[in-house]
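name: query_chain
kind: protein
chains: 1
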Amino acid sequence: MKRNRRVKIIATLGPASHEEAMIEKLARSGADVFRINMSHASHELMHETVRRIRSVEARLKHPIGILVDLQGPKLRVGKFAEGAVHLAQGQTFTLDSDTTPGTLRRVQLPHPEILESVSVGDRLLLDDGKLQLRATRVGGGSIETEVIYGGKLSDKKGVSLPDTLLPMGALTDKDHADLLAGLAAEADWIALSFVQRPEDIIDVRKIVQGRAGVMAKIEKPQAVERLEEIIKLCDAFMIARGDLGVEMPIETVPGLQKRMIRIARRYGKPVVVATQMLESMITAPVPTRAEVSDVSIAVFEGADAIMLSAESASGQYPIEAVSMMSKVAVAVEGDINYRGIIRAQAAEPEATAADAISAATRQVAETLDLASIVTYTSSGSTAIRAARERPSKPILALSPNIRTARRLAVVWGVQCVETPDAVNLEDMVDRACLIAYQEGLARPGDRIAITAGIPLGTPGATNMLRIAFVRQDGAGSS
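structure:
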C-alpha cells in the first residue's frame, strides 16, 4: 500500500462502489480516504459502509481515512415518477410542497423556507447551475417559473438561489443527527457544507469536541469573504468548486482555488480540491484532456488531496477513475517543473519552535540527501507541520493513536504507521529507523531525519531534530 505520490485521493462511495470488494479494489488502486455523502446515505448505510471500510483497512494493514460529508442546507428537488424529465426553454414549470412524484410540469420542493422566501424575478439554479428557472408567480405554497435554460432534471438535484436571502444556518437538524451518527461510527473527518461564517465552525467544534477533524467546505461567497477567519478555526477545508461556481461567477473559481491553496499552505491546514475533476469518467473509461489538465493544476499547486465524487460513487468506471487520478498525480510530481513550483509557493514558518524545527528538518533532509523524514506525532500536528514544508523527501509519521493515523490519510505526503510511543530517546531512534526500513523508505546505510516533542508523547510540542543512521539490522544510531 506504499504510494509513489504525495497528493492524496478521496473517493466518494455510492451505489457503484459501496460493496466491500469494490472498496478494497479502490483502496488498492489509490484511494486514501473514502467519503460518505450524507445527502444520499442513511445512518444504517453509513454504519455498514464504515464497517466495510474498516474490514478492508484490517486486511490491507494500512490506515484509511473516512470523511462523513454533511448535507448542510443543501436544497434539493424531490423525486420524479420516471426518475427524470427534460425541461424545454420557455416552458412553465412549478415547484410546490406536494409529495406526489414529479412530472414534466411540476415537482416537489421539500423546503418551505424557499417557498416562503422566493420573490417574482428571482433565479433558481438547478443541478449545479445546468438549468435556470425564473420565478413568475409565487404564493399558495408553490413557485411558478419559466425555464430560461432547460435540460435534463432528475431526482434530488440541488437548487441554488443566488438572488434570494434564506433564513437558515449551516447546521440543519438533519446535519446534527448525521453529525452525531458520524461521530458514533468514529468517522475521521466531518465536512460541514455551505459554511458562511466562522461561527458555523465554532458550533460544530462544540459538538465534535476533538473526536474528529472538522473540514469546512468553501462554496458560498460569504465564506470567501471571511476565508482566513474560517480557515483558522477549522482543521482542514475543501474547495467545493461545483456550488462555488454556481454561487459565484464561474470564471473566478480558478483564481480562488489558487488563492485558497496558498492560504492553506500558509496556515498549515490540509486543503482538498473537489468537484468534476474527472467528470466524463462517469460514463467513459478515459477522461478528457481538459480534465487531466485540471487535476494536474491542483497537484502542481500543492493541494493536499483531490477528490472524486460521482465518478467513483455512481459512475461506470470507479476503479479506472481512481487509477487515472493517481497516474496523473504521479506524472505531475515527477515533472521537471514540479519542485520549483512547489518551492516557489512556500510560506514563511510561524515564529514557534515547532514550525522552526519543521522548516529546518526539510532543509537538512534535502541538503544532506537523507532518505526520509520520520515524525513522532500523537495529535498529528507534527506530521502536518512537516507536510506544510512540502519536502522532496518522504514523510513517515509514527503515532500511537490509530485515529490520528487515519486522520493523516488526507495530508500531503504523509505515510502513517500506528506504533506504541517510544520509551526513551534510544528506542525512538531504533523504532524510527526500523519502521522506515520496513516501509521501504530507507535502506541500511541511509540516514533519516527524526522530529519529535520532548518529553515524548506531548501533543503539539515538536522541539527536537535528530539525524540517525540506519544499520544493517534496520535499527538505528545517531
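note: The chain has a mean pLDDT of 92.
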